[in-house]
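Here we describe the complex-level prediction in full. Unlike the single-chain runs in Section 2.1, the two entities below were treated as one system.
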Amino acid sequence: MMRHLISAADLTRDEAVLLLDTAEEMARVADRPIKKLPTLRGRTVCNLFFEDSTRTRISFEAAEKRLSADVINFAAKGSSVSKGESLKDTAQTLEAMGVDAVVIRHSASGAPYRLANSGWIDAPVINAGDGTHQHPTQALLDAFTMRRRLVGRDAGLGQDLAGKHITLVGDVLHSRVARSNVDLLHTLGAQVTLVAPPTLLPVGVDHWPADVSYDLDSVLPKSDAVMMLRVQRERMNAAFFPTEREYSRRYGLDGERMAKMPEHAIVMHPGPMVRGMEITAEVADSDRCTVVEQVANGVSIRMAVLYLLLGGNESDAPNPRTEEK
Amino acid sequence: MSKILIRGAKVLGGDAQDVLIDGETIEAVGTGLSAEGAQVVDAEGQILLPGLVDLHTHLREPGREDSETVLTGTRAAAKGGYTSVFAMANTFPVADTAGVVEQVYRLGRQSGYCDVQPIGAVTVGLEGKKLAELGAMHDSAAGVTVFSDDGKCVDDAVIMRRALEYVKAFGGVVAQHAQEPRLTEGAQMNEGIVSAELGLGGWPAVAEESIIARDVLLAEHVGSRVHICHLSTAGSVEIVRWAKSRGIDVTAEVTPHHLLLTDELVRTYNPVYKVNPPLRTERDVMALREALADGTIDIVATDHAPHPHEDKDCEWAAAAMGMVGLETALSVVQQTMVDTGLLTWAEVADRMSFAPARIGRATGHGRPVSAGEPANLTLVDPAYRGAVDPAGFASRSRNTPYEGRELPGRVTHTFLRGRATVVDGNLA
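The structure predicted for the assembly as a whole is:
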């Protein structure tokens, strides 16, 4: 297993499947009356958040606590960082206090990579989202959700997503979720299609392992999962699209569009949703929408990541699964 | 001053000759010159070039003496083989008045390592709104002839037009930092395949090319000459080539780093590769080399941009843009242009001394290596191979993209008006 988790592109197919399988084991813990494992007892994990993100931070914190780690939450606001302290000094300060792993969220693309590769600290680094670059645990929890829904909870063990058609819709340009998902889904054998107005696709997207379409309606009937990406309303002020209404008409998912999807297909969203913009309430609240499941699965995935990066030892696994397909 | 005999150097890469310096001037060039009364420099196997001239240097003084001073910057220049550097105007305060350019000029004279020719700002405070007193800067002791808002683009077409016209009165030239500001808001690196993957804001080639296209047309319209700073894209090369074919009076420079490095290096997120304009693609690098070889691009200029360690020891987005370049420029040019067979040493002398001196009207620099000329000379050992070690830099800053990289060639001696500023690779 790798030392850090910086990018979904760094994972091999077998590593990704091991993470998903391990997350299934972790999910079983959540079904117990006492949702706690002793795996990381005596180890300290710091959630270093330079960017506000309550849901990701809480998800990591829940995962860390279920593994019995000691948790330090560091939010940049109101800290020495807002007084001009550098990322390097902040990280070194934390490590000097005996932190065994750093979970970092940062608005600058590449900040976790720098932290892991500049010799500033020795501790493993887990990327909890950096700028418009990567958000690998999000991609893992999304893949986990897809595998459960499209392959099956038990049938999925040891399996990847070969042959599944996954559609990502929305602001790909500014989305670390899209980048991570394209990388991981490709590694897992899925066929990815990106749907967005051309303004919200990066120059160079033609080199990604994904198809591109500007027409949502034509892609929906062959999609096994449709992931709606959040679109910030302010984007229209920078001329990425003319109005909110026009965006919704062309790229939003409403009940009528959802009906074009195959019956088994699911609707996903990394949250937070902008209801009325990229997704209507009817879709968001439907049974096909996995938003709440994704949140629950996020804790299992983050437990698996922490477990495999820090726990390391297979024999400590709650239900060891050594056989790899 | 005593006499110096440089013995057996290949002058401009040609046949081995002796060059006798007497005082501040070259007394004789020939074979078998007498060493009597002269200190002898054995230059067998080495290349003798006219002292190099850099049309684009940031010396940071006044205002950012923590990154460089005129003294440390000119020492770095001497080590790189330069005898004249043009100091950019984006200091604090900005070099937009006769007072500031005279201060920089005077500091250069005092340093004694390399002549410093200040560049004046085109607009007050580099703000692009109101012309600075260009005539006063020209008439000052500094005698400014090159004007630039470098670091920022003169993006207002009317201001650019007026500046191009106005400096004709005293033979000046505007050096444009071609960067359309709206197209580069939040830009962090070249826009393309790599930026799409890394999630870093893109700096599209068209932001450079559109300004160059506009400015060569403006220069044609008003009959002025215009100089393009740090040209970085294949498309820019095409536009300049077209403009020259039409007889437009345009000159252009390329930096050593744009001749060697590509945006693939940004994958490391190491801000030592963060520079403006950004590192481009392999295709651009090859087009720039070809353009420098065929003369479409006139000169190599370093865009030496020192920054303190903490401004690079951070995450990419927070880091400053720029690289030091004075002490590695000639080695990079040797590797990319000479060792590849694209340029002869005589052509290197043109691209790094004769032509920049001509564009900047630098008197006493960029002169032929012949009797009666000022003894501004650089001696290069082209056989040298060594890894770049920033710890040995004379510059106050260490932000080089070449740390640990093996580069060919080494400046062994630099002479400024007959006085050795560098001896055996060390500052004299």
